[in-house]
Amino acid sequence: MSAPARPLAALKSALRQLRADKHHSRCYATAAPTIPGRPVNFHPGAIMTGRNSEHSMKKIPVFPAVPSARTTCKDPIAAVTASQISTLDPTGARTRLFSRENIDRANPGDILLVRLKNGDQYAGVCLNIRRQGIDSAILLRNNLTRVGVEMWYKIYSPNVEGIEVVQRKEKRARRARLYYMRQPRHDIGSVDNIVRQYQRQRAMLRSSEVKSRDANARKKKNNKRGSN
Q1: Residue in 198, 175, 202, 200 with CA at minimum distance from that of residue 186
Q2: Domain at 183, CATH number
Q3: Which one, 28, 46, 109, 224, has least CB within 10 Å?
Q4: Cα 180 to Cα 125: distance, rounded to the nearest angstrom
C-alpha cells in the first residue's frame, strides 16, 4: 500500500510560493501613476520656483558655545557664600571675631553680649560656636529667674546689631562644646551682674572720651580767638 498524502505540507509550500509571488508583483492600487513628460524619479519637493536651490536656502546662524561655569567659577558655592557674607558683614568685624586665624577670637566659655536691632539684648556663656559659613551661629546660656535658658544666634543675621565679648575665660577650654555646664555643679549661674559692670565701665570710658573731645574743642577755639 502507498503512504498517505500529507495535505498540511502541501499547504505550507503553497503559502511560501504565494508570499514569493507577492514580492515580485504589485497591485493597481499601490502602483505609482505615470504622467507623460515627467521623469520617473520625480518628487514634488524638488520643484524650485524662480531661483536656484543654492540661493533659495537660508543660512542658519551658528553662535559660539557658552563658556562653561567651571572655567569661570570653579567653586560657585564658596563664591556665593563670600558675596553674602560681604553684604551682611561689610566691615568684617564679626568674621574676625569668630575666625580661627584670629588670636583674639571669641572662644567657648567666654561671656558674650548680643544686641539686636529692636533694642533687646541677651548675654550668656558661649557653649558652642558653629562655623558653617553664612549659617554660623553661637549658643549662649544664662539663668533667668533661676532657670537655665539657652539661645542660638546667627552671627550674620540682619537682626543682630552687634556682638561684644564681656568677659573671657581665664583658661582655655579643652572642649569645643561645653555642654557639661548644663549640670548644676558646673553651671556658673546668672551673668547679669558681670554684664552690668561691663556696661558701667563702657559708659565711663565713653563719658571720659566725650569730655576729652569737648576740652580739645574748647582749647582750639580759645587758640583761634587768641591768634585773632
Answers
A1: 175
A2: 2.30.30.790
A3: 28
A4: 12
Answer whether residue 144 is part of any domain: yes
Strands 121-130 and 137-144 turn out to be antiparallel
Integer angstrom CA distances of residue 60 from 51, 52, 87, 186: 19, 18, 45, 78
> For the segment 172-199, what is each residue's pLDDT rounded down to a tens digit?
888 889 999 999 898 888 999 999 999 8
φ/ψ of 14, rounded to 5, equals -65, -40
Tens digit of each residue's pLDDT (9 = 90 or more) over 62-71? 888 887 777 7
Tell me which residue has cell 505540507. Answer: 9
Task: Tell me how crowded residue 116 is: count the other CB atoms within 10 A of its CB.
Answer: 14
Residue 10 domain flag: no
Give whole-number Cα distances, 101 to 31, 64, 80, 130, in Å: 88, 45, 22, 16
Phi and psi at residue 225, to the nearest 5°: -65, -40
Residue 129's nearest CA partner among 157, 106, 103, 148 is 106
The span from the CA of 25 to the CA of 2, in Å, is: 39
What is the span of the domain harbouring residue 176? Answer: 78-212
Q: Which residues of 11-23 are buried (b: 16+ CB within 10 A; e: fewer)?
A: eeeeeeeeeeeee
Flag whether 162 is in a domain. yes
Total residues found in the chain within this entry: 228
Question: Could you give the number of structural domains in the chain?
Answer: 1
44 occurs within a structural domain: no
